[in-house]
Amino acid sequence: MTSLPPQPLSPLDGRYRAAVAPLADYLSEAGLNRARVEVEVEWLIALTDRSLFGTSPLAEGQKDRLRALYLGFGQEEIDWLAEKEAVTRHDVKAVEYLVRDRLSSLGLDAIAELTHFACTSEDVNSTAYALTVKRAVHDVWLPKLRAVIAALKELAEKHKDAAMLARTHGQPATPTTMGKELAVFVWRLDRVADQIAANDFLAKFSGATGTWSAHIAADPQVDWPLVAREFIESLGLGFNILTTQIESHDWQVELYDRARHAGGILHNLATDVWTYISLGYFAQIPVAGATGSSTMPHKINPIRFENAEANLEIAGGLFTTLAATLVTSRMQRDLTDSTTQRNIGVAFGHSLLALDNLQRGLGEILLREDVLLADLDANWEVLAEAIQTVVRAEIVAGRSQISDPYALLKDLTRGRRVGATELAEFVRGLDIGDAAKERLLALTPAGYTGLAAELVAEV
C-alpha cells in the first residue's frame, strides 16, 4: 500500500477547518510566534522610551518599522523561524534571533543587545499566551457563544406562549412553555459568558525566577517592577508581580473551567433539543440536496446537535486537562505546561465547532405546536397538582373538610391516565367553594403554565 500525500491528522485542520479557521490567527504556532515577536518589539520600545542604558527614544518612523515586524508577520517569518529553531532547538531563542536580524536591516544595531533584555523565555511566553488567548476568546470564541445565546433568546421570545408538557424524570409533569425552557438556557449561558468576558489575562515580566535579579544587577536605580507593570498593562493585560520562573497560570485555569462550564450547559441544550426533535416537538427544515440516511430516504437526522454534543465532550475533556495540569509547576518551573498550552487551540477549536453547529442547528428547526398541544391533551392528570393545591388552600380558608387532598389526588391519578371528563366530574364532587371549583373546571393542561410566558422577559 502506498503512502498518502501529506494529510492533516486533526479533523480541525481537515474536515472542519473552515469552521475553526479564525482561531488559527491566534492559537496556532504561527499566531504564538507573531505574539512573541510583538512582545520582544514592544519591550525594546519600552526600554528605549525610558532612555535606559544611555539610549534615546526611537523616532515614530523607527517604531512603525519595528512594529511592522509583527503587524506584517507572514510566511517569510514563519519559514525563517522554522529554520532557526531547527538549529537552536528553542522556540523563543529563535524569535529573539529573528528580531535581532531585522534590527540590523533597519539600521538599529545599536540597540540589538536590548532584545530579550533580562528576560527569561517565560516572560515572553506568558505575555504572548495571554495576548493570543485573550484575543481568541474576545474576538472569535465569545462572539460565537453570544451568537448562540442570541439565537436561543430569539426562539425563547418567539415561543414564550407555546404551552408544552414538562417531563421531570422523563414523566409527564406540570406544563411549561417552550420559550421558558429555552430562556433557562439563555439565563445560564449569559451568566457564564459574562464571567468569561471578565476573566483576568495575566502576564509576568520579572526574570529567571521572578526576582528581577538580572535587572537589578544591570541598573539597581531603576524601579523594575514598575517598568514591568507599565509594560504589561500597556499591552492590555493584567500584571502578576509574584511568580516563580513562570506566571502561575491560575487565570488560565479559571478561564478553562468556565469554558468547560459553558460547554456543559451547551451540552445540556444539545441533548434537550435532540430529545424535543425525537418527540416531534421540533421539525427539522430539510436542506436541499442533503441526505439523512444512506438507506432510509425519509430521515432528517439531528446531526447539528449530535456533532455539537460530541465536540463539547472533547472540548470539555481538554479544558479539564488544561486546568488540572496548568495549576501545578514543580518547584520554580517544569516543562509540563509547554506541551499542555500547545493544545489550547485544540480545546477552543472543538468548542467553536460545537458552537457553530448549535447556531446552525437552532436556525434549522420549526416548532410543531400541534404536537405540543396533542401531548398536553393526552395528559390531563398533570392538573392533579393544581387540584390538590387549591383544595389545601380551601381547607386553610375553612371552606373544605377534606382531610388529605394529596392522597385523594394520588389515588385518582398516580400511574393512570385521566381525561378531561373524569377530572371535571371529580372536581364537581369536591367539597370546596364554588369560586375555587369554577377556577379548576376552567383549567386545561395547555392553560396551566403559570408565569412561564412572563418569565421569558427575564432574559
UniProtKB/TrEMBL annotation:
InterPro entries: Fumarase/histidase_N, Fumarate_lyase_CS, Fumarate_lyase_fam, Fumarate_lyase_N, L-Aspartase-like, PurB_bact, PurB_C
Catalytic EC class: lyase
Keyword Transcription regulation: no
Pathway: Purine metabolism; AMP biosynthesis via de novo pathway; AMP from IMP: step 2/2; Purine metabolism; IMP biosynthesis via de novo pathway; 5-amino-1-(5-phospho-D-ribosyl)imidazole-4-carboxamide from 5-amino-1-(5-phospho-D-ribosyl)imidazole-4-carboxylate: step 2/2
PROSITE patterns xref list: FUMARATE_LYASES
Role according to the record: Catalyzes two reactions in de novo purine nucleotide biosynthesis. Catalyzes the breakdown of 5-aminoimidazole- (N-succinylocarboxamide) ribotide (SAICAR or 2-[5-amino-1-(5-phospho-beta-D-ribosyl)imidazole-4-carboxamido]succinate) to 5-aminoimidazole-4-carboxamide ribotide (AICAR or 5-amino-1-(5-phospho-beta-D-ribosyl)imidazole-4-carboxamide) and fumarate, and of adenylosuccinate (ADS or N(6)-(1,2-dicarboxyethyl)-AMP) to adenosine monophosphate (AMP) and fumarate.
PANTHER family with a match to the protein in the record: ADENYLOSUCCINATE LYASE
Protein name: Adenylosuccinate lyase
Originating organism: Microbacterium candidum
Gene name as annotated: purB
